[in-house]
Amino acid sequence: MTLSVGTAAPDFEATSSDGRTVSLAELRGKKNVVLYFYPADFTVVCTRETCGFRDMYEDLASKDTEVVGVSFDDDASHERFRKEHGVPFPLLSDTGKKLADKYEASSMMSKLIGRAARVTYVIDKSGKIAGVFKAELSAKTHVEGVRDLLAKLG
User: Fold this and answer.
1) Which of 37, 53, 64, 150 is the most buried (most CB within 10 A)?
2) C-alpha pair distances (Å), 70 with each of 38, 94, 117
Protein backbone atom coordinates (compact mmCIF):
# COMPACT_ATOMS: atom_id res chain seq x y z
CA MET A 1 0.00 0.00 0.00
CA THR A 2 1.35 3.40 -0.93
CA LEU A 3 0.70 6.15 1.57
CA SER A 4 -0.49 9.29 -0.14
CA VAL A 5 -2.71 12.28 0.49
CA GLY A 6 -6.20 11.13 1.42
CA THR A 7 -5.26 7.66 2.65
CA ALA A 8 -5.71 6.61 6.27
CA ALA A 9 -2.52 6.89 8.31
CA PRO A 10 -1.46 3.57 9.88
CA ASP A 11 -2.05 3.39 13.61
CA PHE A 12 0.94 3.33 15.91
CA GLU A 13 1.72 3.44 19.59
CA ALA A 14 5.21 3.90 20.99
CA THR A 15 7.03 5.22 24.02
CA SER A 16 9.20 8.26 23.40
CA SER A 17 12.70 8.73 24.75
CA ASP A 18 11.34 10.83 27.62
CA GLY A 19 8.78 8.18 28.64
CA ARG A 20 5.66 9.63 27.02
CA THR A 21 3.30 7.23 25.27
CA VAL A 22 2.47 8.47 21.79
CA SER A 23 -0.53 6.96 20.05
CA LEU A 24 -2.16 8.02 16.82
CA ALA A 25 -5.48 6.63 18.10
CA GLU A 26 -5.33 8.94 21.12
CA LEU A 27 -4.55 11.98 18.99
CA ARG A 28 -7.19 11.22 16.35
CA GLY A 29 -10.11 13.62 16.56
CA LYS A 30 -8.11 16.01 18.74
CA LYS A 31 -4.92 16.99 16.94
CA ASN A 32 -3.19 17.09 13.61
CA VAL A 33 0.06 15.15 13.71
CA VAL A 34 3.37 15.97 12.06
CA LEU A 35 5.16 12.61 11.94
CA TYR A 36 8.65 13.04 10.58
CA PHE A 37 11.28 10.39 9.99
CA TYR A 38 14.89 11.46 9.90
CA PRO A 39 18.17 9.58 9.40
CA ALA A 40 20.08 10.33 12.62
CA ASP A 41 20.44 12.52 15.69
CA PHE A 42 23.25 15.10 15.64
CA THR A 43 23.69 15.19 11.86
CA VAL A 44 23.58 18.53 10.06
CA VAL A 45 20.34 18.27 8.07
CA CYS A 46 18.51 16.31 10.79
CA THR A 47 19.46 18.85 13.43
CA ARG A 48 18.35 21.70 11.15
CA GLU A 49 15.03 19.93 10.51
CA THR A 50 14.38 19.13 14.18
CA CYS A 51 15.28 22.66 15.26
CA GLY A 52 12.99 24.04 12.55
CA PHE A 53 10.08 22.09 14.01
CA ARG A 54 11.19 23.11 17.51
CA ASP A 55 11.21 26.79 16.55
CA MET A 56 7.63 26.66 15.29
CA TYR A 57 6.36 24.15 17.86
CA GLU A 58 4.54 26.71 19.99
CA ASP A 59 2.65 27.97 16.95
CA LEU A 60 1.86 24.40 15.83
CA ALA A 61 0.69 23.40 19.32
CA SER A 62 -1.61 26.42 19.41
CA LYS A 63 -3.20 25.06 16.21
CA ASP A 64 -3.96 21.64 17.72
CA THR A 65 -0.92 19.98 16.17
CA GLU A 66 1.53 17.53 17.73
CA VAL A 67 4.98 16.91 16.28
CA VAL A 68 6.63 13.50 16.58
CA GLY A 69 10.16 12.71 15.35
CA VAL A 70 11.28 9.17 14.52
CA SER A 71 14.68 7.67 13.74
CA PHE A 72 16.49 4.39 14.25
CA ASP A 73 18.65 5.94 17.02
CA ASP A 74 18.16 4.58 20.53
CA ASP A 75 16.43 6.37 23.40
CA ALA A 76 19.71 7.47 25.01
CA SER A 77 20.78 9.23 21.81
CA HIS A 78 17.33 10.83 21.45
CA GLU A 79 17.43 12.14 25.01
CA ARG A 80 20.88 13.70 24.51
CA PHE A 81 19.68 15.22 21.21
CA ARG A 82 16.41 16.43 22.74
CA LYS A 83 18.11 18.05 25.72
CA GLU A 84 20.98 19.60 23.74
CA HIS A 85 18.58 21.26 21.30
CA GLY A 86 15.62 21.97 23.63
CA VAL A 87 13.21 19.76 21.69
CA PRO A 88 9.76 19.94 23.34
CA PHE A 89 8.08 17.18 21.34
CA PRO A 90 8.52 13.40 21.54
CA LEU A 91 11.26 11.54 19.70
CA LEU A 92 10.61 7.86 19.02
CA SER A 93 13.27 5.22 18.72
CA ASP A 94 12.37 2.82 15.92
CA THR A 95 15.27 0.40 16.31
CA GLY A 96 13.12 -2.46 15.01
CA LYS A 97 12.18 -0.38 11.94
CA LYS A 98 8.51 -1.37 12.29
CA LEU A 99 7.14 2.17 12.28
CA ALA A 100 9.39 3.12 9.37
CA ASP A 101 8.11 0.10 7.43
CA LYS A 102 4.47 1.11 8.10
CA TYR A 103 5.19 4.64 6.91
CA GLU A 104 7.42 3.78 3.94
CA ALA A 105 10.41 5.47 5.58
CA SER A 106 12.74 2.56 5.07
CA SER A 107 14.21 0.80 2.12
CA MET A 108 16.72 -1.96 1.65
CA MET A 109 19.47 0.67 1.41
CA SER A 110 18.35 2.63 4.47
CA LYS A 111 18.19 -0.58 6.48
CA LEU A 112 21.68 -1.55 5.33
CA ILE A 113 23.12 1.77 6.49
CA GLY A 114 20.92 1.74 9.58
CA ARG A 115 19.08 4.99 8.92
CA ALA A 116 15.51 5.99 8.16
CA ALA A 117 14.66 7.84 4.98
CA ARG A 118 13.76 11.51 5.45
CA VAL A 119 9.99 11.72 5.00
CA THR A 120 7.37 13.82 6.77
CA TYR A 121 3.66 13.12 7.02
CA VAL A 122 1.01 15.60 8.07
CA ILE A 123 -1.92 13.63 9.42
CA ASP A 124 -5.15 15.55 9.89
CA LYS A 125 -7.45 15.24 12.90
CA SER A 126 -9.52 12.56 11.17
CA GLY A 127 -6.45 10.35 10.77
CA LYS A 128 -5.97 10.87 7.05
CA ILE A 129 -2.73 11.89 5.41
CA ALA A 130 -3.00 15.54 4.40
CA GLY A 131 0.56 15.95 3.12
CA VAL A 132 3.77 14.04 2.40
CA PHE A 133 7.18 15.69 2.09
CA LYS A 134 10.27 13.90 0.81
CA ALA A 135 13.63 15.58 0.36
CA GLU A 136 16.67 13.78 1.72
CA LEU A 137 18.96 16.80 1.87
CA SER A 138 16.54 19.66 2.53
CA ALA A 139 15.22 20.33 6.01
CA LYS A 140 13.61 23.49 4.64
CA THR A 141 11.33 21.49 2.30
CA HIS A 142 9.90 19.62 5.27
CA VAL A 143 9.62 22.49 7.76
CA GLU A 144 8.20 25.05 5.34
CA GLY A 145 5.95 22.46 3.68
CA VAL A 146 4.44 21.56 7.06
CA ARG A 147 3.98 25.21 8.01
CA ASP A 148 2.28 26.07 4.71
CA LEU A 149 0.05 23.00 4.69
CA LEU A 150 -1.11 23.46 8.30
CA ALA A 151 -1.95 27.11 7.55
CA LYS A 152 -4.31 25.83 4.83
CA LEU A 153 -5.86 23.18 7.08
CA GLY A 154 -6.76 25.89 9.58
Assistant:
1) 37
2) 6, 7, 10
